[in-house]
């Protein structure tokens, strides 16, 4: 039963990432990487928008019973995203590009998808 629940979460997450990539492209973002993996984790989407490098966390849910998707991007996730962003910048030798963190929150409802883009959702959080 747990394995089935995990599989459903993965399928929902992957669907959400595809929806988010399409939405961001329509919104003027240039998608650079989807599911960028490195030894410390994964960034859902890396994009460029208006000269900024944007690290995007996608959160997808099928209901708001447990809260809105964006509420799942707490301090621990923000710290992790900050570490992943530094890794990406070093790996891709991007240098001093202006960066920001966005969140795409998706509710997959029977009536259709509710997609919310939160620009500058959080600031870089140093780790240590």
The figure for the number of domains is: 1
| Widest sheet, order of strands | 1-2-3-4-5
Radius of gyration: 15 Å
**Strand pairing plus helix content: what structural class?**
alpha+beta
* Highest CATH level, the class: Alpha Beta
Q: Quick one: how many beta strands? A: 5
Approximately how much beta-strand content do the residues carry?
Answer: 35-45%
**What integer is the average pLDDT?**
91
CATH topology, by name, is: Trna Endonuclease, Chain: A, domain 1
Binned, the helix content reads 25-40%
User: What's the CATH architecture?
Assistant: 3-Layer(aba) Sandwich
What is the overall number of helices? Answer: 2
**Cα distance spanning the termini:** 38 Å
Can you describe what's shown?
This protein has a single domain (2-122), classed as Trna Endonuclease, Chain: A, domain 1 (3-Layer(aba) Sandwich), CATH 3.40.1350. It has two helices and five strands. The chain has helices at 2-26, 75-91, and strands at 30-38, 41-49, 52-61, 99-109, 112-122. A five-stranded mixed β-sheet has the order 1-2-3-4-5, with helices on both faces. It is globular.
Topology record:
Blueprint (H helix, E strand, L loop, with lengths): L1 H25 L3 E9 L2 E9 L2 E10 L13 H17 L7 E11 L2 E11 L6
Parallel strand pairs: 3-4
Antiparallel strand pairs: 1-2, 2-3, 4-5
Please give a quick description of this structure.
It is built from 2 helices and 5 strands; from the N terminus they run αβββαββ. The protein is of the alpha+beta class.
Q: Which features would summarize this protein structure in a list?
A:
alpha+beta; 5-stranded mixed sheet; single chain; 128 residues
């Amino acid at each position: 039963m747990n394995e089935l629940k995990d599989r459903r979460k993965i399928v929902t997450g992957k669907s959400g990432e595809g929806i988010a990539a399409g939405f961001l492209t329509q919104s003027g973002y240039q998608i650079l990487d989807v599911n960028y993996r490195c030894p410390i984790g994964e960034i859902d989407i890396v994009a460029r928008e208006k000269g900024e490098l944007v690290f995007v966390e996608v959160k997808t849910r099928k209901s708001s019973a447990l809260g809105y998707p964006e509420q799942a991007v707490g301090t621990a996730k923000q710290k992790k995203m900050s570490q992943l962003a530094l890794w990406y910048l070093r790996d891709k030798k991007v240098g001093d590009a202006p960066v920001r963190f966005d969140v795409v929150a998706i509710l997959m409802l029977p009536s259709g998808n509710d997609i919310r883009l939160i620009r500058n959702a959080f600031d870089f959080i140093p780790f240590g």
